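so the lab meeting is tmrw and i was supposed to have these ready like two days ago... anyway. pasting both below. for each one the top line is the aa sequence and the line under it is the structure tokens. i havent really looked at them closely yet so no promises
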Amino acid sequence: MRGLTTAASIWATCSLGVAVGVGRYLLAVGATVLVGVTLGGLRAARDLLRRWAVSREEFTLMTRGSFDLEQVAELARREGVSVRGLDREPADGGDRVVLVARLPRRYPPERLLEALTRFPHVREVEWDG
């Protein structure tokens, strides 16, 4: 959706520039208001839907030494997060652990990201969000 609204915003900006360039100032002002209200309304609708939606997120942990995957499972249970996938792949100097999780409603992914970074032997956590 982000790419679609960005492309539409660029198109609308170009159209407004053309309207101003040919001297149609009233049309340009009206269109500017219409575009602003539309984008603001779409953002509000997106935020409302995100607030009530259940999300699926993917986290990648880069670990060093021995890392117990049971720690991740225990954290998920405590937080009410449903684990959809948990894979471990050997990497340079440690492992790469990919966690696919379904988060409860209104649960901020940043909260789980922060909790994962606090584990011992975790060097880095990436979130595809």
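ok protien two:
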Amino acid sequence: MEATTPASAAPRVQPDSSERLDEFTTALRGAADADAARRVLGEIRAYLRGLPPEIAVKVIASFLDSARDVAVPLEFALEPGGSLRTAPTLRVWLLYTFTLVSPEAAADYARRVLASSPSADEWAVSLRACAIGRPDDVAFLKAKAGEMLARTDWRAKPSSGYLEAFDVLVHTKANDFAPRLAQLVQDKTNRAVGHAAFLTLDRLIQQDAAAVLAQLQAQPDLMTGREQTRANYFARADVRDPAQRALLETYLLDPRRAPAELDTFAGIYPNANFMVSNNLITRTITPAHDDLAAHDREALRVVEAWLADPRFATQRERIEAMRHRLRNFVQQMGK
């Protein structure tokens, strides 16, 4: 009688699977240059994805458990669609590839990494793994994102992975992080982190302007020294939403607003500048032509109403400039 394997039996690693990964590791250590390293990384990913998922999971976990690593002469870099194009270490590459093999198993392993790893780049791919493999665990992701931002050593010398990991805040719609991000934007001594925080805060505003702008309006000190940046943020407000219109009117009538900030606002409102980027988790979505046209038409109507409103008498020159520009936009959209 032919023996059978119970369906519940744990899968065994093929005898040569781990050995094959060891061969790749040796090849990666001996890579003569960045191009050679890139080829080996590609071969590793192709090999692991070609294995049965349950086998690939064991091979990857076994290597990661061994605490071995190989430094790679490449950067943490993303390609269109958010895929990891290159990584600075083999561990980072394997942690990312883990998600391609088994999102759920990768998310479970990533929790272990996030509990102990001293590497910001490993945290970045592990946060991504959790976001993809366990998408409902938003509270955990936010908590770990908060820990990441609190790491002064990572902020002082931010790696590319650390900066890319800010996308977790966009993914989780972490509006409650707005004050912390604004403080990072304020810090002119750390341009890389400040820029990452600026982009993240901007994208949060694009997702939920009323919630984020309300915090910036209530805590004006958050943007001290970055008043013109605040003007760009408030110029995102969509007056088709009553809550955003109310916030915008409060902002314009606030006596604490300096002329330079108001001039910046008037020169860009409505802010429809959208930066397309390759993000670790999320995708950049820009408004459709018809939505922009509808936005501009309503913005023009509201601006004309402000001109007739005595409350805005001191802002008349700026509002006239906005009306002139909006009229041109609406005419161009109508062609």
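from a quick look at the 2nd one: The chain has a mean pLDDT of 93. The two ends are 80 Å apart (CA to CA). will dig more after coffe
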